[in-house]
Design a protein that fits this description.
By secondary structure, the protein is mainly beta. The protein has three helices and 39 strands. Strands 1, 32, 33, 36, 37, 38 and 39 form a seven-stranded antiparallel β-sheet that branches. β30 and β31 (about 450) form a beta hairpin.
Amino acid sequence: MSQRILLGTITCLAVLVGVLPYLAAESPGKREPAGLDRRVPWTMSKVRGSPEPPSPYRTELAFPKLKLDEPLHITNAPGSERLFVTERYGRVFSFPNDPAVEKADLLLDLNLSMGRTAPKTIAAYGFALHPKFAQNGFVYVTYVIDLEKELPAGTRVSRFHVLPGEPPRCDLKSEQILIEWPSGGHNGGCLKFGPDGFLYIATGDSSGIADQYQTGQNLEILAGKILRIDVDRPTVAPDGVSPRRPYAIPRDNPFAGVKQTRPEIWAYGLRQPWKMSFDTMTGELWTGNVGQDLWEQIYRIEKGGNYGWSVVEGSHSFRPERPRGPSPILMPIVEHDHANFRSITGGFVYHGQRLKELAGAYIYGDYDTGRIWMFRYDRQKKAAFDLHELFKSNIRLVCFGADNSGELLLLDHMTGRISQLVRNPAANTAGQFPRRLSDTGLFASTKDHQPAPGVIPYMVIAPQWCDGATKERFLALPGRSQIEFEGMLYPNAAGAPPGWKFPDGTVLAETLFLEMEPGNAASRRRLETRILHHERLTGTEEVGDQYWQGYTYLWNDEQTDSVLLVDPQGRDRPFVLRDINEPAGT
């Protein structure tokens, strides 16, 4: 029924730079100003809300006064009420779990630890605190060494020691490199200590598009895997004195002692395991896995499990001719196609108290679409049930976190804000969205396709190819509102990037026409009218967002009106075109 759309540069250019109002004129050698001599206010809009039932949940800022710079990870600390956030370019901060907090305290700057002065040369992906952090002060971080090189030198996991005192600060000289693997675009990076006390590391396939180096099924390398190591027991060389590596291989690792394999591997065949977590009640390990062409997956990670990449993408064949690992390929518990998810973010099994109806549900989401979903897991059937959407947010959801009480936190990479899921007080109310095009207020005469006063027809300089169809386009701004531009000289209150700012209630519309007899203008008929509606979403706090709702109205055979398409999967409708040069009846 609707599709959330992020208004990007191309759309802005089409609407604002490529607009040629019908009243504009241009003579040879002289460019006349393009625009309207007089603008009539549009006062007839009935496009409000959504035809979809209100979501049972919404989001709100958990820390309204706190903002970070491109955060990628958030986690809690055992024995501490502080939360820890990792920023993209190599900095880790901590702050009290207090809604009134205004400023985060710097824990670690990897740029300083490596003597870097140039900005944005290091990328940090994951962070974890030792289960006995309160006693030993150890923290662990995953980072890419050098972003300045075309092919980064590699990804590493290092340990640092936190100095006594508040707020906590790392000793920059205490770094101990634990493990490294080549970088290549999919670096995973998530770190989690399991209930067994071992450190689990998600690596990503480090292999670019389509796993070109075929790392996922190769057990001789670390990429495309989840690793499991014992960070409390360094391995010594045969002389019994020299350290061979700063960790040990747990004896029950599935490939420990197997020739031509890396003994650190716990599971394999993953493209980009983006955020994993342990169920605090059962100990089960869950991860989201970002797909490539068509599918996003959620996996329950098992000892020695093979998750198929790049022989398969989820449960679907990808490169079936490629060599396979030694264990059978396991299927995802849940997968989404790219119509709904495009960059999945793994979440948590919820065990908090604030939303008791969600207890035991695995809650996860998507970076690109902002969707937040849940399911429950049937251990006997090894299958998901009660799978459904909780909220369609405007969050660039890069990570879920949980505080010490099990309450979930949602990290927005773009705004740097931290939100939480709350019940929607409007969940049981019905929306009054126009079901017919004639009820939208866009047309004075829908039958004649005559726009209402204040609705502006426009064309674009470079129209898209529509397989023989043509379009008529309209822009409707409520009242006397105006489109504004917020650039570097005029930043908005939320700190959003520069760009066009459309007034609340703006509608963009286009009607698609097709000549049933190609070349005969009289045979032209309307197929559908699409609208994009800009309106603040319920439960959003940021201003200046450019999210839109998209809807399609299908024209009736009489060409008198158009009815809202309510099927979210769309509809196929055949049309028969007749060559005007052929005799009638052929």
